[in-house]
Amino acid sequence: MDPVRNPYAPGAGQRPPELAGRDEQLDAFDVVLERVARGRPERSVVLTGLRGVGKTVLLNALRSAAVRAGWGTGKLEARPEQSLRRPLASALHQAVRELGPAGGAGEHALGVIRSFAQTPPVDAGGRGRSAPRLRDRWNPGITVPAVAGRADSGDVEIDLVELLSDLGGMASDTGRGVAVFIDEMQDLGPDDVSALCASAHEISQSGLPLIVVGAGLPHLPAVLSASKSYSERLFRYSRIDRLDRAAADAALVRPAAEEGAQYEADALAAMYAATGGYPYFVQAYGKAVWDRAPGSPITAGDVEVAAPEAEAELAVGFFGSRFERATPGEREYLRAMADVAAAAAEGEETEAVPTAEVAARLGRKPQSLSPARDALLKKGLVYSGERGLVAFTVPHFGRYLRDHS
């Protein structure tokens, strides 16, 4: 079939032609926007799930919904070892620009953002601020002067509460709202997580039209709860999982129909068996099958012929790139996890396995494997949602490891 007309999009964070199976989250967010706009109490939103389930795509779709509602929006991606100040200041600067001219209130908000962005942090002992190095003297691109005395204490929690309170007040004056979207939220540092929770708590108590929408790995709720106990009541948590059969079929059938192509029922069954309903895999297999199929309707035989090509693409771009980031010792730990998961009754690779069983598989003491496990946690290859358990952040990763060991 014509590869130029191939409708599928297996890209990182790239919106598929049919955003299937996410109507519940989109509808719920529309309600949040409407309630906040009317001054009704509402919680910020956190999306959690494995890699490849479409969290970033959904996050972008929610941002689009906020833009359509006339809100000011900004987005950032958290990174390990990176302070929240710079990326958040850029995101909020974008949100203020989207709200448009707001006179003195808008200039004040921009001045507070600049003050927040350019304030060096208090040192670890709380004794004072360290002077920023030349390469850290960042210009946020804001021309108005910094506002002295607002969001410039150097304590990120105090500063962020003041910053978001001022922006929420400005948005309220305009009759609109501000939404800040944070991807890979689990990678925020402990101080930044604490500050974000405290700020969202203050905003919710004040009834200001500002919300935070975060996305991250399944252990993100535990990260937030460890920082502030009230975070369990502060956010509306939504677990983003693989698609059910009807939604997975829709993600394949509807884009194909727009190009005048169809699937046979057996082909759709074969596609679901191969992809497990994970959105990234659905797009990867859809693209490979389209390119290999001689014509419409697409058959189960076409799926069988194209499957090795799809698997090879995933092995390099989805699984292999992550596996290459691990050291030899860490790879040994990952393979042991895969073996333990496979040994479990009806075990799925993504299910959590006991760290003690992983150690037993390697013939080691659990304590001796702590450095490897901690490194894998920091690299985002595994996560621990509960003490003593560990799981892959990538679906089907265990199967990949067993097939390529």
UniProtKB/TrEMBL annotation:
SUPFAM superfamilies: P-loop containing nucleoside triphosphate hydrolases. Keywords: ATP-binding, Nucleotide-binding. The keyword Isomerase does not apply. It comes from the Bacteria. Residues 18-213 form the Orc1-like AAA ATPase domain. The keyword Cell division does not apply. Residues 1-23 are annotated as: Disordered. One of its GO terms (molecular function) is ATP binding. This is ATP-binding protein. It comes from Phycicoccus endophyticus.
